[in-house]
Amino acid sequence: MAEELFTPHNIIVTGGCGFIGSNFVHYVYNNHPDVHVTVLDALTYAGNLENIRGILGDRVEFVHGNICDAELLDKIVPGHDAIVHYAAESHNDNSIANPEPFLKTNVEGTFRLLEAARKYDVRYHHVSTDEVYGDLALDDPAKFTERTPYHPSSPYSSTKASSDLLVRAWHRTFGIRATISNCSNNYGPFQHVEKFIPRQITNILEGLRPKLYGNGENVRDWIHTDDHSTGVWTILTKGRLGETYLIGADGERNNITVLRDILTVMGKSPDAFDWVKDRPGHDRRYAIDSTKLRTELGWKPTHTDFQKGLEQTIKWYTDNRAWWEPAKAATEAKYKQQGQ
Ligand code: NAD
Ligand code: DAU
Question: Which residues are in coiled coils (predicted)?
Answer without folding.
Answer: none
